[in-house]
Every structure is written in C-alpha cells, then in structure tokens.
C-alpha cells in the first residue's frame, strides 16, 4: 500500500492537470441540488424529471473502460452515479483525474441499472473541492483511539454511529432549552473572562488582558453572575455554555466542558427537585424515544421516581463513620486505605468528597437524589438549620456518576462572607481549588437577593450517559489532547 505522501503527490499532479484544463477546483457556487435520501425515497417522481442535480463526496469509485460508477454521498445518504463516455463526451476525459474524497456536483437523468439500483446517469459534473489526502479505510488509519479524537473530522466521516452520537447531543441541548423556555426561563450570557473566578471548587486557567494589564481567569462556573441577575430583578435565568477547570483529565473530566446552570427566584429545594426530575425524565424520553437506556451493560430506568438518599447515610454505610463527627485522623486513615491522596493542603471536605466519589458514587446506577451534604462542601448553599453542619443541597447520580448539583442558594451576605473567609484559609494552606472572595458578589447580596434555588447539569456527562459512551472524550467533538510527538 502506497504511503500517504506518495498518494498526495499523485493527487497534486491530477489537480495541476485539471487546472491546466481551466477547471476551478474550489469554486464558490454550488448548483441547486437534491438530497440523496430524498431522491431514493421519491425515485419515481424524480425519474420523470429531465435533469436533476446532486452534490456530495465521492465515497466509491469503480472504472470500467468507457464507464465509471461512483458513490456520491451527502449528509442524508448516498446515490450511485454513472459516468459514461457516450453521455459525457469530452468531459469524460476529466474522470480519471477524480479521486475518492473529492466533492462534486453532478447533473443528469435518473435511471435504474440492470440490478435495479437507483442511479444518476451524468450529463455533466463540476468539481467542488479536490481532496489532496486519501480518506483512511475503516480498517486502516484510525485504529488508534487517540488518532480518532485528534482527527475527529475523519472519525465522523467514517463512522455513522459517531455522527449519530453528536446529533443526539444536539437534540439534548435543544430539548433542555425548550423545557426551560416552556417554564419562562430567560437565556442569558455571563462573562467567561472573570477578574475573580468563583462558583466552584476548582483551579482556574489564568490569562492577561494586555490593554488593562489585568490578570483574568477563564470561568470555572457562571453561578455568581447568574445570582447577581436575580438581584437585578430577573426571576428565572439560565445559561448553557462552556466552563473551564485546570484539573486532571479522565473518563469523566475534561478541562473545558459544557454545563447548564439555572437559577429560580422564590423556589425552594423541594420544588427544584420535582422540576429537575421532570426535566431530566422528559429530556431522556424526547431524545432517546424511551425511558430506559443501557449504560456500560447496566439497564437504567428514568420511568420510576428518583430515589431520595442521604449523603451521610451512604457515607456511613461504606466507611462505618459519620462524615460530620468523624475525626480528621480517622478520615485520613480511611482515605489512605482507599487510595485517596492526603496531605497538608487536602482539607477535611476534600477527603470526604473524594472518598464519596471513589467508593459510593459508582454504586448509584439508577437515578437518585443524594441530599444534605456536609456544609463544608457547600460554601454557596444554605444550611439545613441555624446550627446545622448539613447543606440544603442535592446531587443527581445515575450510571454511577454525578450528573447534576443543586442548592437552596445562600442569600445572607454576612454568612456568605464568613464562608469565603473560611475558603481563604484553605487557600493559604495550599488548597488551590478553594473559592475566592468575590467582593462584587457580596456587594450584590447586600442589595438583597430573593430566596432562590439553583441547579447545574453536567451536559457532557449527561450525553455520555444517554449515548452509552465509554468516556467523556467520545461526546466532545474536539476533546483536549496531548500534543502529538
């Protein structure tokens, strides 16, 4: 088999020969065309037309003396095309210069071959784009998973199931928007470049605005800006967009990711639970056409009411200690036995969170609400009671991973400042993921923010779950990759 550079050199010679014949290999205009699937579906009607035009990529090419058959493929499907010396005349001399991967517009008359296959008998054709590199065969060139992600355009071209996964992703996004708009939520856009990154326990990416000599950060979450909009008089707002976290990469984490966050004034956690369950159930049903999905070999049902589980009870069942009352030394000992990193900068809250994620979360296959996390894990949430160490918070788990997180939002500015002060202590101790004090947000709270519930959905994980993808990279068109050596 010839190497790519040899094949490319041959194609460049063909391109040069076509240019010498006056052929524009990359024209702007495409003639009005029909979709391949539409032609296949309504063959009888279109076969009565004198001429029709199709356009697409050559995905099959078979030359037989004075004739050539090619498969012309567009986004809807493919149609066989017949090039014959008799029908094309002089134009047939350009056929040998065509290659797999080239884009063409072909006009002609519909016929059926002796085998009964719908075929367009060409009367003329236009090169729309000359492909200078060969498309790898299904079994050659993309066996390496890393290469699939690195050359996603080829992965999409060769694998219909990959294209379908991203169509499903798009439908999930449309459905989520539709549900929120049905509930009169307003879609908004908040800053991605932020002077003070907040709203999540995460290390941010840093950049510099040269015009103002101002250090800025890519947002880790849109939460604080969205809550400032509640102060400004909006009652239902949402944002569907990218956030960025400078953290490790694995099958459920990518440095840039899509999340849906919405905030609902005058709503409490109980009402939010009811709505979020309906939203997720409806999204699954409308995009997957079923309420039952398969994920990693497990059957997951969204038709039943989500279970309600207490964080502390789940933790106790796994580790035989209460996460609220256990001593720091006990938690460190448990962490070491379970392979969870410890150290001076690893706070009690981080240990509890990592232990739960590593040991408890994988057991939560069926959709479930996990309620009332330790307050130390939830600096932006209300407490269950005045002196409680538990937060008015829930997470939604399914398929053994967290897909959503929600709070009864803390709107007491003095209490919020205390929480930020505590976070600042953790930062000074070396915890780079501790939240920063946002004075603009605290000032906004002092103007008064109504009671509200807030919700965040990890869209990428949700798509991963619904499409039975083995990793997050399978549902990101262009996931973050190490540079190729």
TrEMBL record:
GO terms, biological process: lysyl-tRNA aminoacylation
Residues reported to bind Mg(2+) 1: 402
Essential cofactor(s): Mg(2+)
Superkingdom classification of source: Bacteria
Leading EC class: ligase
Molecular functions (GO terms): ATP binding; lysine-tRNA ligase activity; magnesium ion binding; tRNA binding
Assigned EC number: 6.1.1.6
Database matches in InterPro entries: Aa-tRNA-synt_II, aa-tRNA-synth_II, aa-tRNA-synth_II/BPL/LPL, Lys-tRNA-ligase_II, Lys-tRNA-ligase_II_N, Lys-tRNA-synth_II_C, NA-bd_OB-fold, NA-bd_OB_tRNA
Cell compartment(s), UniProt: Cytoplasm
DNA damage among keywords: no
Cross-referenced Pfam families: tRNA-synt_2, tRNA_anti-codon
Residue ranges of domain Aminoacyl-transfer RNA synthetases class-II family profile in the record: 166-483
Reactions the enzyme catalyzes: tRNA(Lys) + L-lysine + ATP = L-lysyl-tRNA(Lys) + AMP + diphosphate
Primary localization: cytoplasm
Keyword terms, alphabetized: Aminoacyl-tRNA synthetase, ATP-binding, Cytoplasm, Ligase, Magnesium, Metal-binding, Nucleotide-binding, Protein biosynthesis
Binding positions for Mg(2+) 2 per the UniProt entry: 402
PANTHER family: ELONGATION FACTOR P--(R)-BETA-LYSINE LIGASE, LYSYL-TRNA SYNTHETASE
Family: Belongs to the class-II aminoacyl-tRNA synthetase family.
HAMAP family xrefs: Lys_tRNA_synth_class2
Subunit structure, as described in the record: Homodimer.
Matching NCBIfam families: lysS_bact, PRK00484.1
Stated name of the protein: Lysine--tRNA ligase
Organism in which the protein naturally occurs: Terrybacteria sp. (strain RIFCSPHIGHO2_01_FULL_58_15)
Gene name of the record: lysS
């Amino acid at each position: 088999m010839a190497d790519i550079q040899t094949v490319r050199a041959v194609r460049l010679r063909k391109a040069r020969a076509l240019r010498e014949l006056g052929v524009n290999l990359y024209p702007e205009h495409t003639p009005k065309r029909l979709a391949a699937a539409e032609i296949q579906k309504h063959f009888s009607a279109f076969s009565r037309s004198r001429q029709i035009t199709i356009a697409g990529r050559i995905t099959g090419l078979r030359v037989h003396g004075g004739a050539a058959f090619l498969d012309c493929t567009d986004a809807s499907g493919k149609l066989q095309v017949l090039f014959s010396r008799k029908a094309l005349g002089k134009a047939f001399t350009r056929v040998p210069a065509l290659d797999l991967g080239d884009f063409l517009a072909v006009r002609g008359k519909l016929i059926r071959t002796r085998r009964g296959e719908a075929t367009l008998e060409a009367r003329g054709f236009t090169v729309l784009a000359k492909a200078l590199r060969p498309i790898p065969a299904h079994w050659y060139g993309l066996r390496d998973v890393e290469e699939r992600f690195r050359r996603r355009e080829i992965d999409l071209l060769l694998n219909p199931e990959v294209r379908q996964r991203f169509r499903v992703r798009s439908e999930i996004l449309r459905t989520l928007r539709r549900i929120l708009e049905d509930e009169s939520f307003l879609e908004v856009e908040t800053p991605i470049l932020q002077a003070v990154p907040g709203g999540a326990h995460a290390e941010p990416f840093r950049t510099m605005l040269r015009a103002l000599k101002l250090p800025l950060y890519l947002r880790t979450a849109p939460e604080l800006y969205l809550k400032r909009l509640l102060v400004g008089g909006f009652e239902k707002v949402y944002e569907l967009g990218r956030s960025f976290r400078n953290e490790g990469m694995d099958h459920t984490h990518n440095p840039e990711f899509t999340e849906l966050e919405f905030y609902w004034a005058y709503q409490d956690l109980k009402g939010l639970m009811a709505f979020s369950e309906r939203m997720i159930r409806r999204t699954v049903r409308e995009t997957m056409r079923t309420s039952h999905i398969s994920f990693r070999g497990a059957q997951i049902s969204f038709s039943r009411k989500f279970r309600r589980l207490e964080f502390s009870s789940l933790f106790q069942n796994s580790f035989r200690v209460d996460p609220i009352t256990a001593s720091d030394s006990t938690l460190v000992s448990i962490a070491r036995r379970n392979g969870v990193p410890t150290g001076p900068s690893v706070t009690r809250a981080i240990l509890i969170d990592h232990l739960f994620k590593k040991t408890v979360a994988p057991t939560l296959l069926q959709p479930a609400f996990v309620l009332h996390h330790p307050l130390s894990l939830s600096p932006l949430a209300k407490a269950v009671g005045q002196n409680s160490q538990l937060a008015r918070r829930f997470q939604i788990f399914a398929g053994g991973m967290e897909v959503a997180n929600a709070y009864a939002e803390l709107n007491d500015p003095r209490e919020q400042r205390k929480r930020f002060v505590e976070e600042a202590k953790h930062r000074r101790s070396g915890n780079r993921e501790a939240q920063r004090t946002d004075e603009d947000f605290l000032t906004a709270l002092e103007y008064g923010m109504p009671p509200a519930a807030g919700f965040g959905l990890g869209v990428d994980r949700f798509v991963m779950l619904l499409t039975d993808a083995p990793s997050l990279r399978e549902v990101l068109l262009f996931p973050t990759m190490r540079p190729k050596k």
